[in-house]
Amino acid sequence: MTEANPLVEQQFRIPFDRIRAEHVEPAIRTLLAGAREHLDQLTSAPGPRTWENTMAALDRLTEPVEYAFGIARHLESVATTPELRAAFNAVQPEVSAFFSSLPLNAALWQAVKSFAETDEAKSLTGTRRRFLTKTIDSFRRHGAELDEAGKIGRASCRERV
Predict the structure, then answer these.
(1) Contacts with 24 (C-beta within 8 Å, 6 or more apart), sequence order
(2) pTM of the predicted structure, to 2 decimals
(3) How many C-beta atoms lie closer than 10 Å to residue 71's C-beta?
């Protein structure tokens, strides 16, 4: 394939006419690898926690995967082909596992909690306050505060679903 993969780069105008089933798997796997790399950078960032190096970084690391997977999901639901369905089904478990793993990532949970304790976090208003609150609530609901045995059990339950 010589043309660039249209799912890898976020664009305002989604190039639906150029997206093919064979783009889905390589794009999603590339974007997941990038997201994991950014997650490692976020959790190992030195120094004090800030909006930029914690919450904004978390939002940026998931956005490319959400964009590409959302397009693939949309196409699979409205204009599917056997090839597109197979490609979508091939990456869906990987995407699900990645997003399910975020609240169970102890280093990420610690980073979010550390930021929440800062003066910067306590002075947030509007959408930033809501994003922080919703993130903390979601992480707790999905098991962030469980001990390691509980997290392992929770992760294995998700694998069976």
Answers:
(1) 7, 72, 84, 87, 88, 90, 91
(2) 0.85
(3) 20
